[in-house]
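Researcher: We're teaching a course module on how sequence relates to structure. For the next exercise, students receive a sequence and then see the predicted structure as tokens, so they can try to spot secondary structure elements on their own. Here is the exercise chain.
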Amino acid sequence: MKRLVVVLAAGQGTRMKSPRAKVLHPVLGRPMAIQTLASLETLSADRTFVVVGHQREAVQEALSSCGVTCVVQEPQLGTGHALMACRNAIEAEGPAEVLLVPGDAPLLPGDALAGMWDTFHRSGEAAAVVTLRLERPFGYGRILRDGASLVRIVEERDAKPEERALTEVNSGVYFFRSPGLWALLERVGRDNAQGEYYLTDLFALLHREGRSASLFAAPDPRDWLGINTQEELARTTQRLREGLVRRWMEAGATVMDPPSTWIEAGVRLGAGVVLHPFVRLCGTTRLESGVEVRSFSVLTDCEIGEGTLIKEHCVLERTAVGPRCILGPFSRTREGTVLEEGVHLGNFVETKKARLGKGVKANHLSYLGDATVGAGSNIGAGTITCNYDGRMKHPTVLGEGVFVGSDTQLVAPVTVGDGAYIGAGATVTKDVPAGALAISRVPQKNVEGWAERKKARGR
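Model: And here is the predicted structure for the students to work with:
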């Protein structure tokens, strides 16, 4: 019998009070729905279906690389209606066990779910539900029992006062067997406060027929809670981040101040990485072993080579940095930057679509855009590649071993040959041959006695 997963991601999420669909809100750098799917990866399900509805085009686009099948629910008439929308897709798979989860629960523990699924498989029962014990159960469906047996699940809006006092609630995670599921779903009506087809009504139908459903108690309710408000989004993100930081420390990374360190879900760290307080690692950033990142630096979608030091207040975006480089403080590298082994990039240096060869040094106050700099070259303070003519960008190419003096403007397109020197203050508008010295400056003139004459006039 196949194992199928259905993720409910069609709702609007009105309590988020946001124009964005709830499941697209970011959780550690990923849309919430993708983070939920990531929590289910250890289940190795045969197929995963995601029910989409509100802003379905945007949700489908976000999930396009996740290997899931999207099923449209239109209109959105409740959880029972959402599962019925999957009927054709599920029946096409043949007899199956179905795990249904909400798309707004990114903390779901995959290992615990796998154990519950195995237990459900052996039980032979028609359905199962995961329950939580909450001190403040507001908003959750209450579990009504008869001893160990589930009688029904009553939603908050439909519950009587004594039922609302119950603290065992529905997590929104269910197991079903597909052969008998659809006949039950067809009997679910909309006679409730919200006028929707409640999936939870299935359990009352099962009880009336004398068929039992399993109840699985969640070991830690915090891992099973869905996100309905911005506050819950922040709280869930914090919990996920804390767990992620803890796992990286267990793997050998040194995190000096875990509460202030931001590591997103797609980040990977090598052994011996050192992160100072207030570091942000975002997107698909990879740090090889021995990398040190100091405070207030932000890295997004970067590859950082072994032993590299990134000093304070650096901002790196879509940059590849080789081993044993030194960056910062206050360096900025933009998309398309490649720094080869041993590059030094100092304070207030910015690069964009630039490739700096092995051992290049640009230590002060420079902009290198659309540039290629050969190995061993030195870029003096205040060097600017003037790459934009008002309409188009143009390249600057410096060979190996080039020395560029301070306050130089390289007006692209321009090429400087290997071993060439450029004098300080030059404006280079023509190619410089290899081994040549380029000078472009007004000759100095000294006016003797000028200062004394100025002072005399001032009196």
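Model: If you want an answer key for the exercise: The chain has a mean pLDDT of 96. The longest strand covers residues 344-356.
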